[in-house]
Specification:
Strand content of chain A: over 45%
Oligomer: heterodimer
Largest sheet of chain A: 6 strands, mixed
Radius of gyration of chain A: 13 Å
Strand content of chain B: over 45%
Shape of chain A: globular
Distance between the termini of chain B: 33 Å
Helix content of chain A: under 10%
Helix content of chain B: under 10%
Largest sheet of chain B: 7 strands, mixed
Number of strands of chain A: 11
Chain lengths: 112, 115
């Protein structure tokens, strides 16, 4: 049972374009939604996170959009750069019990 | 020096062998986790420990065991390795007192191949 579903599995974008990765969750107990970024040969690292009391959070070129009623959230990377090429994982956490559930991951390739 | 270290970084072993993966952290965090990463499946939780005396099974604990030797050390064992345990394994830590952040810090991973 996959509680967090992520799409697409892979994404190719041209430099300067917008990258969009989507996630959907089932468990309404989730109340913290982070995105992790993983470069080849490295462990994942926190990129940006959102709580469900807001519909959007922006940090530089990275934005999370959150739709609580649809139980969906997405990562938007504006002005995508080759250095953004990595694997991105969405995740969800019930803060009452800190156990993360990850999505399947998206391999992003940004062509120069 | 890295805050979360894993040894070995790469390991090739044969079916039926016992193998241990080790994780150490200098972050002073109380919570530690073991995940495995497989293409198309994301990161799946094997075991987690919220303190030295609290160890819990994750979603895919069959075939694995763990030991929390100290707050800073958390080991994962495969008692009798099988080929479908070939994967990338990650250790992670978090701080239960870091309210509002919930960030997990990952080690560099161990690539395990079972032949």
């Amino acid at each position: 049972q996959q509680q967090v579903k992520q799409s697409p599995q892979s994404l190719i974008v041209q430099k300067g374009g917008i990258s969009i990765i989507n996630c959907a969750y089932e468990n309404t107990a989730f109340d913290y939604f982070p995105w992790y970024q993983q470069f080849p040969g490295k462990g994942p690292a926190l990129l940006i996170a959102i709580r469900p009391d807001v519909s959007e959070k922006k940090e530089g070129r990275f934005t999370i959009s959150f739709n609580k009623s649809a139980k969906q959230f997405s990562l938007h990377i504006m002005d995508s750069q080759p250095g953004d090429s990595a694997t991105y994982f969405c995740a969800a956490l019930p803060t009452s019990y800190g156990k993360l559930t990850f999505g399947q991951g998206t391999i992003l390739t940004v062509h120069p | 020096d890295a805050d979360v270290t894993q040894t070995p970084r790469n390991r090739i072993t044969k079916t039926g062998k016992r193998i241990m993966l080790e994780c150490s952290q200098t972050k002073g965090h109380d919570r530690m986790y073991w995940y495995r990463q497989d293409p198309g499946l994301g990161l799946r939780l094997i075991y987690y420990s919220f303190d030295v005396k609290d160890i819990n099974k994750g979603e895919i604990s069959d075939g694995y065991s763990v030991s929390r030797q100290a707050q800073a050390k958390f080991s994962l064992s495969l008692e009798s390795a099988i080929p479908n345990q070939t994967a990338l394994y990650f250790c992670a830590t978090s701080d239960s007192t870091d309210r509002g952040k919930y960030e997990q810090y990952f080690g560099p991973g161990t690539r395990l191949t079972v032949t």
